[in-house]
Amino acid sequence: MDVPRVWIAAIGLSTFLFARAVYRAFFHPLRKVPGPKLAAATYLYEFYYDVILAGRYIFHIEKLHQKYGPIVRISPHEIHISDPHFYDQIYAHSSHRRDKDPWVVNGFAAPHSMVGTVGHDHHRFRRNILNSFFSKKSVLELESFVKTKIDHLMERFEEFHREDKVVQLDDAFAALTADVITYYSYGKDWGFLDDKTFRSDIRLAVNELTTVWHFSRFFGWVINTILSLPPSVMCWIMPGKAVVFNFQKSIFEHSADSMRSGTGKGVGRNIFNKLSDPSLPAVERSLGRVQQEGVVVLMAGTETTGRVLSVGTFYLSQDKEFREKLREELRHSGAKSWTELERLPLLAAFINEALRIGIGLTARLPRSAPTETLMYKDIEIAPGTSMSSSSYIIHRDATIFPDPERFYPQRWIEASERNFNLTKYLTSFTRGSRSCIGINLAYMEMYMTFAELIRRFDFEMYDTTYEDVRVIKDFAIGYTRRGDMKIFAKVAKAY
Ligand code: HEM
């Protein structure tokens, strides 16, 4: 008797799955959006490319656009639009409500942080707590500290040069950005730049998070279960988190000390003070939320900027002529501060190109308009539809950036000579209400670090070629054939 029941259940389930797939492909509100029917019918399509083949869907999406045009349905509930002119409708200003995709935010493994917040209003509330903390005015106040840290990195490069040792540039830059963001957020830096090999606990946590990025998107409940376990168990399962939690514990102890003494260094500049402000509703200043927001800021502030600095330095080492021109521009101008450096056309062009190729995040970062029906040409996009437009694809669009694989900073100069606003197509930070809150800090770090680096050093790549910076996997950040990006170099003095 039991056997037939099992069969009935199996047939029932198969019929349900089949009917659902048919509905999704042929009767769903997105049925008219072009794309493979299999991708419309089942999540297994995306699962195959991103989980089984490990971070390859973005490259396949690029091919789907060549076949189906600028709008493609890439999963039962998500469309990808590769049309920069539609970008600001997806990544819209805060006057238009934009939610995040609950599937995708699972990848951040930080549901209580602003980056992991799904709803528009809730996100606005959380973002407002930190907006002034990351304003241009606030960032400018820390310029001299950032300069001290950059000088420290330059001293370390001198050391590598003197001892004729190979430096791992990605670790070196991540140590710089980690020291900056810890000081910026907590009033104290943790001295990653002093470490012999630039080991950074924050970077370790980023690597751990990104390797499970796609798995977490599909199996959010696994990650949320792990997050709800006691810290000791969680740390056993995710050792990278353990490192970051221990590190964060030291941050909290430091914050508590500062607050107790009332005179401690960093009391004024402390993200912890903002996030645990007694005027906030209790649920918004719970320890779990404060911890998650704190960790997200540290991770987001470390890896992305570090990566653009690394990729930019790689390409700088490949073009002596351009390097000399940049050096001449810097020498001639005498510019030192961020505001002065920003006005240098060649340096600005170089940084734009480093951002274009280095990107920062390769992840699709979908948004949905919960109450608006959008139109893409004659295709209706129903409210609640997940829409993404990947920077990886826009930045490689040959109609905007001819010969897109080529690192060619002059394209930005040539465009401005034609009065063409090419920066409109630079989307590394996304745009709109949920764009990067750390954009000012990132620019300050990039301008000041590159300026000092170009003035003082040349780098000769060591066991690192173009293939080692070329992104072949998307794990929210770009992975190369070595896995996480690793760039080795020998340091030479420029004078
Ligand atoms: C070149 C450097 C950087 C790039 C390319 C970059 C890129 C991005 C992108 C694309 C997002 C949107 C994420 C999403 O849609 O889910 C984002 C958000 C964010 N970034 Fe950055 N970022 C950079 C530097 C920084 C820095 C230095 C900080 C430090 C404060 C930072 C902190 C954040 C935070 C906290 C968010 C979440 C904002 C929100 O949800 O409202 N980022 N970043």
UniProtKB/TrEMBL annotation:
Xref: InterPro entries: Cyt_P450, Cyt_P450_E_grp-I, Cyt_P450_sf, Cytochrome_P450_monoxygenase
Write out the entry's keywords from A to Z.
Heme, Iron, Metal-binding, Monooxygenase, Oxidoreductase
Q: Locate the residues binding heme.
A: 436
Q: Which residues form a coiled coil?
A: none
The Swiss-Prot or TrEMBL record annotates one GO molecular function as: heme binding
**Pfam families given for it?**
p450 (PF00067)
Top-level taxon: Eukaryota
- Cofactor(s) demanded: heme
Name the Gene3D superfamilies on file: Cytochrome P450
Q: State the similarity comment.
A: Belongs to the cytochrome P450 family.
Name under which the protein is recorded: Cytochrome P450
What organism does the UniProt record list as the source?
Aspergillus taichungensis
